[in-house]
Amino acid sequence: MGNLIGHLIGHRTVLACALIVLLVIGAEALRWSHAARAAALPSMGAGSAGAKPAPATLTELSRTHIPAPNNMPSAHASALTPLAGDGMLAFWWAGSRESGPDVKVFASRWRNGAWSAPWEVASRASLGKALGYGVRRIGNPVAWTDRAGKVHLYVVATGLGGWAAARIAHIVSTDGGASFTVRRVLPTSPLFNTSALVRTSPVALSDGGWWLPVYFEIGNKYPMLMAFDADGNPTSLARIGHSTSTLQPAIVPVSATEVRALMRDDSEQMRVQHASSRDGGASWEDLPALDLPNKSTSVAAIRLTSGQFLMLHNHIAAGGSDRNLLRLSISDDLRTWRTVADIAKGPAGDEFSYPTMQQVGDELHITYTWQRQNIAHHRYKITLGETI
Amino acid sequence: MTLPDLALQIVYARLGWAVVAASIVAALWRGPALTRPVLAAILGGALVAMLLPGELSPAWWLGLAFQYPSGLLVGCCALRLHERWHGIRRSRAMPHTLAGVLVVCGTLLYLDTFGLLARGFYHAGFWPTLAPAIAALGAAACALAIVRGHARSPASAMLGAIALFSLLRLPTGNLWDAMLDPLLCGWAVFTLAAGAVRKSGRRASDRLAGNQEAPLAPVLQPAPLEQFSSVKE
Questions:
Q1: What is the tens place of the pLDDT at every residue in B166-212?
Q2: Which residue of B has its CA nearest to A136?
Q3: Which of A76, A137, A206, B140 lies in the 20 to 30 Å Cα band around A351?
């Protein structure tokens, strides 16, 4: 009898194991058959890929501050994303102070040449409620509008600890940014999924997807790219280069296969750092730093539809400080840069930092942190055919 | 790269943390004998606590700090609870071989994550071909081990973690997160360290015992008597 029971149990074990293995193999095979076969390349937009850049000129149209929420004296880290037509959304965080418990992400809509009153988009409470676990601090937002008009917002939301314990929450709006629902926290690290942050703007891919620049910052700092498909689902995660002291990569496509990353420098070199990919972002090599100073401050870069490259960066003038001068520079080759204008400058100790820019039609929109109190917005008219 | 639905992750986190918490409470239990009713009460209490809403739930705070336990950690904790239920004192949930593999993998993975290796090990856990292939091969190997009776306990925990990953992509969609997390790695390091301490302790006691039983040292041994005579031959 004992032998019979043992025999039956043995048979059940074999059957259960075989069933689990078949289910595992079946599920993986099904998923694999639906997986994308090739990684998408960066989209060159309306620009002439590979052609000689056409000269362009910028004429300032307006400068203003985006309306601030009431009783929120601190503001930082703006992000822009265009909407259908000539509309645009700006996102930033505001609160009593950086890392304060009352810090929230706010949004404002640009329409008919003016910014709307700000509204709240995400907070510790709203993210925690949706995720089912606590969020300690709210940080940088980064925004992207997909082909279907959905607005994807990536928000730094920390676990237990400082910014090094940061995670990235992915929230989505189907009503033009009026309301958002939490999709997930992006998996980026095996260390309790901490120490991944966002700051710089996403880049369009040819299949309707996009790249989200990400960076790691416990001790060593290094940049990464997370790719998304057209539906906003992550498809891959990869490191940019081998450096351990660069962060906040600003990605610019040069051609259908060549991509560059301009990065904040956390090393003693104190120069804008530079990396390149010649296979559409599949592999990266570190390039020599640019001849532009960078004392660990964020940069923004875009490729104009004319083919030229623009970069916003904090220049360090004699007697100045790390962030008291925000400069707009232009380049044909991403190596040699010349100054277009000093967007904002003040005495040493002032702060004009964390810039973002977007080309919307024939206008260039720039936002940046103004004295840690407001988000400033400058608008320029882009005219092709003249040298800046 | 297929990621799990957030609703599934929330359910997994609550159940997973309940199993881990119950296992820790049972391990630290110093009250009356850990009978089945006591063990059931611990597990039930952990489940109820984790299901509490918002900040009242320990899952809220555990998620804040650790996000999700790996499938293998939950599996090993469930095994430990199963062993205690059956009154098995000598645990097989974390054998030294498994602990060694976890420590080696964890060391490589975390060195890479801190930017010291730059090999992209964690990112490979999302690869659309490699991760599923490893999962399928791993599941087959675990099933074979269970059927043949080799390391049946850890093989069951691993098979469960792989099944959770392959069927639902829990906990995060990355194969590494299914098989390893810093808490499990810490458990493995502790197991190896405790094993090493026990082994060195045994060696020391063996030496001591050996010394007590050994014959007197040669210097103290009586020298063989020399036959001599004062009479000149």
A1: 999 999 999 999 999 999 999 999 999 999 999 888 888 888 887 77
A2: B64
A3: A137
The alpha carbon of residue B85 is apart from the nearest alpha carbon of chain A, in Å, by 19
Shortest alpha-carbon distance between residue B130 and chain A (Å): 10
Contacts of A40 in chain B (CB under 8 A): none
Which residue on chain B is closest to A16 by alpha carbon? Answer: B143
Residues in chain A with CB shorter than 8 Å from the CB of B146 are: 13, 17
Question: Cβ atoms within 10 A of the Cβ of B221, count?
Answer: 9
- A–B interface: beta-carbon pairs under 8 A: 153
Residue A39 lies in a domain: no
Number of separate domains in chain A: 1
Q: How far apart are CA B25 and CA B35, in angstroms?
A: 14
Check: CB of residue A103 under 8 Å from CB of residue A372. Answer: no
Chain B residues touching A182 at Cβ < 8 A: 6
Looking at per-residue confidence, does A33 or A228 come out higher? A228
Q: Is residue A158 part of a domain?
A: yes
Contact between chains at B115 and A235 (C-beta distance less than 8 A): no
**Assigned domain for A42 exists:** no
Give A227→chain B minimum CA distance, Å.
10
pLDDT tens digit sequence for A344-372: 999 999 999 999 999 988 899 999 999 99
Is A43 inside a domain boundary? no
Is the bond preceding residue A42 a cis peptide, omega within 30 degrees?
Answer: no
The residue range of the domain holding A364 is: 48-384
Does any domain span residue B229? Answer: no
CB contact, 8 Å: A189 with chain B?
Answer: yes
Residue A375 β-bridge partners: A369
What average pLDDT does the segment A329-342 reach?
A: 94
Number of domain units in chain B: 1
Query: Which of these, A63, A29, A78, A153, lies nearest to A377 by C-alpha position?
Result: A63
Structural domain range at position B94: 6-200
Is B28 among the domain residues?
yes
How close A178 gets to chain B, by Cα (Å)? 22
pLDDT tens digits, one per residue of B90-118: 888 899 999 999 999 999 999 999 999 88
Assess contact for A378 and A78: CB atoms under 8 A: no
The most confident of the ranges A38-52, A124-138, B29-43 is: A124-138
Q: What is the DSSP letter of A221?
A: B
Number of CB atoms found within 10 A of residue A34's CB: 8
Task: Tell me, yes or no, whether B207 lies in a domain.
Answer: no
CA dist A347 and A374 (Å) reads 18
pLDDT bracket for residue B23 (50, 70, 90): very high
Q: Which residue has the tokens 């995400």?
A: A122
pTM over 0.90: yes
Round the average pLDDT of chain A to a whole number and report it.
92
pLDDT digit string, tens, across residues A216-266:
999 899 999 999 999 999 999 999 999 999 999 999 999 989 999 999 999
Q: Which residue of A has its CA nearest to B105?
A: A190
**Chain B residues closer than 8 Å to A220 by CB:** 114-116
Contacts of A244 in chain B (CB under 8 A): 115-116
Chain A: give the shortest CA distance to residue B207, in Å: 43
Looking up residue A117, the CATH number of its domain turns out to be: 2.120.10.10
